[in-house]
Automatic annotation (TrEMBL):
Residues 65-83 have a biased composition (Basic and acidic residues). This is RNA-binding protein. It comes from the Bacteria. The keyword DNA damage does not apply. Residues 65-109 are annotated as: Disordered. PANTHER family: HETEROGENEOUS NUCLEAR RIBONUCLEOPROTEIN 87F-RELATED. GO terms for molecular function: RNA binding. Residues 3-81 form the RRM domain. Keywords: RNA-binding.
Length: 109
């Protein structure tokens, strides 16, 4: 287990101060990141909270998962590392499907 937690189902009004206030009772928080939409800047409804130790993060999961924060029942789990592929829409990938849009040539249909 690592010391980084995923916190989901957040209210769009939840800010970093509210997260720190809710989680600091479990130990030293080293980072809080609230995910936001790259185009609009609006919150996406989830965040990552990182503690100094795994023990602190375990205590936070046990006590905070399923509790209310800003009127929403939040999900608190161990954060999972990103997949190696990086995700996203990489249309120039050599692994793209044959017959994909880019392979249709000059055909209108």
């Amino acid at each position: 287990m690592n010391s980084k937690l995923y916190v989901g189902n957040l209210s769009f009004n939840t800010n970093e101060d509210a997260l720190r206030s809710a989680f600091e009772q479990f130990g030293a928080i080293t980072d809080v990141y609230i995910a936001s939409d790259r185009e609009t800047g609006r919150p996406r409804g989830f965040a990552f909270v990182t503690f100094a130790t795994e023990e602190e993060s375990k205590a936070a999961i046990e006590k905070m998962h399923g509790t209310q924060l800003d009127g929403r029942e939040i999900t608190v789990n161990e954060a999972k590392p990103k997949e190696a592929s990086g995700g996203g829409r990489n249309f120039s990938s050599p692994n793209r499907r044959p017959g994909a849009f880019q392979d249709r040539g000059n055909s209108r249909y």
